[in-house]
Design brief:
single chain; elongated; 7% strand; mainly alpha; 2 domains; two-stranded parallel ribbon
């Protein structure tokens, strides 16, 4: 169901199945953005079949474009159908209804990953118009994007990236808010703090930083081990894990948890890679055991 409201209308372009309860002006989707959306929905291998496109066009009160004497791909037929409709209506309400109908969750019960992929890609385009498609196939009004970076911020969520990579659940325990805000530095900082907190709880040693790691994973008298710690290979692995933790500690040594902003630009890919290392460390701690009391 499309959630949209026309604050002033020069042409009657309301669709009978639309609820109008968000205040916004009449907008027309630019042609190049509309074509990009049609390419997503009508993609040859994963897109809708021609039959389903015809069905959803009819349900959205849109006449299907019929080419004369030429063969057109289904995505081109879809584009011309939607383009003609919004030109005639002087607004995109019926076009948005079509997209909403296509993206109804009921249509993706057996292919949730495709739903997520389409929603992300469609929202990258809609962000330039000031709309965002929601999980229930309704729309939310957002600040209109003007650059590719704006679209990236609006449509890509660091948390979803980590979930798709099957990151360790412990990461999300300590940085949910930061992850959802795409605040990359603080996401990494909070996840790192969470890792060291877990080591303190596991070892019952109330220290921090490198001193904590060196004592908990010492060579001569470790408190916690991540393997049987018998063979030389196991001891080398133990030392390597300790060095990895010390390296993570050093990355954040000069920052404090109370700083509002730190001048360390971390891009999304960097954040994902660092969080991947922290995730690996949590995985090793899952198998760790405390072998002596403090």
């Amino acid at each position: 169901m499309l959630l949209i409201c026309i604050s002033y209308v020069f042409f009657d372009c309301k669709h009978p199945n639309i609820k109008y309860n968000i205040n916004m002006q009449t907008r027309v989707i630019p042609e190049h953005i509309l074509e990009n959306i049609c390419d997503i929905i009508g993609e040859t291998s994963t897109g809708l079949t021609g039959t389903k496109i015809s069905k959803y066009l009819k349900a959205s009160n849109i006449e299907e474009y019929t080419p004369q004497g030429v063969m057109l791909a289904k995505r081109k037929i879809l584009y011309h159908s939607l383009s003609e409709k919004q030109k005639n209506d002087k607004c995109s309400n019926n076009v948005l209804t079509f997209i909403s109908t296509v993206m109804s969750p009921a249509n993706f019960v057996n292919n949730i990953s495709l739903f997520e992929e389409w929603k992300i890609n469609i929202n990258k385009q809609l962000a330039f118009v000031g709309y965002e498609l929601q999980d229930d196939s309704s729309y939310k009004e957002i600040q209109k994007a003007s650059t590719i970076l704006d679209v990236k911020i609006k449509t890509e969520n660091l948390k979803k990236e980590l979930e798709s990579r099957k990151a360790h659940p412990q990461i999300f325990n300590y940085c949910k808010e930061e992850l959802l805000q795409n605040n990359y530095f603080h996401s990494v900082l909070e996840a790192n703090k969470g890792l060291f907190k877990r080591i303190r709880e596991l070892s019952t040693l109330e220290k921090d930083g490198q001193n904590l790691i060196e004592q908990v994973f010492s060579d001569s008298n470790p408190i916690v081990i991540i393997n049987n710690y018998q063979s030389q290979s196991e001891k080398n692995e133990h030392r390597g894990f300790r060095s990895l933790l010390i390296g993570l500690c050093a990355m954040f040594r000069n920052t404090t948890a109370h700083e509002l902003k730190v001048d360390w630009p971390i891009q999304e890919q960097d954040a994902l890679e660092i969080l991947g290392i922290i995730s690996y460390c949590h995985g090793r701690l899952d198998q760790a055991q405390r072998i002596r009391n403090v």
